[in-house]
Amino acid sequence: MQGPEPETGRHSSAETDIRRRLLPRFIGSLAILGLLLGLTLGRAFKPEVTQLERVEAQGDRLVLWFNRAPQQTAEHRDGALAFVFDARVEATQGRLQLAGRPVNWRLQKTPAGAVLHFVATRPLKGEWQGAWVDGQWRLSIDLHEG
Predict the structure, then answer these.
(1) How confident is the model at residue 30 (pLDDT cuts 50, 70, 90)?
(2) Which of 8, 30, 42, 113 has the fewest CB atoms within 10 Å around its CB?
(3) Quick one: 141 and 89 in the same domain?
(4) Are 53 and 68 spatial neighbours (Cβ–Cβ below 8 Å)?
(5) CA dist 4 to 14, 36, 127, Å?
(6) Listed range (2-16, 58-72, 74-88) with the worst mean pLDDT
(7) Is the pLDDT of residue 4 over 80?
(8) Which residues are bridge partners to 73 per DSSP?
């Protein structure tokens, strides 16, 4: 029996396969590439945010101008008329005249978009009409006493 000899470059165990070490890196690279590609495509095809551009009071009518058609609903809340929009707005308020009586309106931001309230001494009813005019969405709200 001989004692231990210095190693001569030979090993008793087989070398680890280099492909086994590169596989997690390769899969990680594919995951990062897929994430970046998805973010890029998501930003490219993301729809434009609906933006309120201006508000005009015309007699017993309020006209709202948007850059594109918003989702909208009308509600009656505690005797007041409210319109809910899925759009980005700046908070504003004003006053209309309906049959010689004042009607106050207020446009407020909400987490879901915007709410337009009409408040008067008498119950209100409203009808809205939307149409494309000169490349902008024109929403006209006509008020009458209910």
Answers:
(1) very high
(2) 8
(3) yes
(4) no
(5) 20, 55, 99
(6) 2-16
(7) no
(8) 84
Do residues 60 and 32 both lie within one domain? Answer: no
24, 75: one domain: no
Greater confidence, 1 or 77? 77
32 shares its domain with 59? no
pLDDT tens sequence across 100-118: 888 889 999 988 888 988 8
Q: Report residue 95 as tokens.
A: 């006053």
What range defines the domain where residue 28 resides?
A: 18-47
For the record, the structure tokens of 55 come out as: 């508000």
Predicted structure pTM score? 0.66
